[in-house]
Design brief:
The protein is of the alpha/beta class and about 210 residues long. The protein folds into two domains: about 130 residues, Response regulator (Rossmann fold, 3-Layer(aba) Sandwich), CATH 3.40.50.2300; about 55 residues, Winged helix-like DNA-binding domain superfamily/Winged helix DNA-binding domain (Arc Repressor Mutant, subunit A), CATH 1.10.10. It contains nine helices and five strands; from the N terminus they run βαβαβαβαβααααα. The chain has a five-stranded parallel sheet, sandwiched between helices. The longest helix has 18 residues.
Length: about 210
């Protein structure tokens, strides 16, 4: 139980009762105050605010991006691995899930023992494979900090590429590119592509 006390888990589940039940079970296992968010966008914000060792991710989330796409972002940008939670186990879903290297896949409904053992083994595996380093990039401006992927996307936007062209160039889904672009626009208070391009040039991300 004591080994659990320094492990922080993020629950990404848009069904409030299910999320609360998982949270209570994790507390019973000894994990300190697991966080709950109900959307992919909320998961990104939570990951920016504090470090997490693992995300328990519902695949079928409401919103712009589904759980598989959000898990990919958490893995790439914040080094947070995921265990997927889903009522679906069809081959297409499994193939998409495998592409983002999850540490586990739990089919709903599941028992307490399955949750406990999957979380424990996933944390152990992540501890073995975890590398050193901060995934956050240097500040893009005096008050704006972007992740490496956000910097890459905004650079390509400034070069005139469309979301589809950027997605093909850096091997992301177009919706994921749009999500990164939207986040940068919020951070930089940009109202459109022209503002975003000026921001990229002024911040040194792109060149004239």
């Amino acid at each position: 139980m004591s080994q659990s006390l320094n492990k922080h888990i993020l629950i990404v589940e848009d069904e409030g009762l299910i999320a609360a039940d998982i949270q209570n079970q994790l507390r019973g296992f000894g994990y300190p105050d697991p966080a709950i968010v109900g959307s992919g966008e909320g998961a990104i914000q939570a990951a920016r605010s504090r470090p997490f060792d693992l995300a328990l991710m519902d695949i079928h989330l409401r919103g712009l991006l589904d759980g598989i796409e959000i898990a990919g972002i958490l893995r790439r940008e914040f080094s947070i691995p995921a265990v997927f939670l889903s009522a679906y186990s069809d081959q297409d879903t499994l193939n998409r899930a495998q592409a983002v290297a999850p540490l586990g896949y739990i089919v709903k409904p599941f028992c307490e023992g399955t949750l406990r053992s999957t979380v424990q083994m996933s944390l152990h595996r992540h501890a073995l494979e975890r590398g050193a380093g901060d995934t956050a990039g240097p500040p893009a401006g005096p008050h704006v900090r972007l992740t490496p992927r956000e910097r890459e996307v905004v650079r390509l936007v400034a070069e005139g590429l469309t979301a589809k062209e950027i997605a093909e160039a850096i091997h992301l889904a177009p919706k994921t590119v749009e999500f990164h672009k939207y986040n940068v626009m919020k951070k930089a208070a940009a109202r459109g592509t022209a503002d975003l391009t000026r921001f990229a040039i002024k911040s040194g991300i792109a060149r004239l």
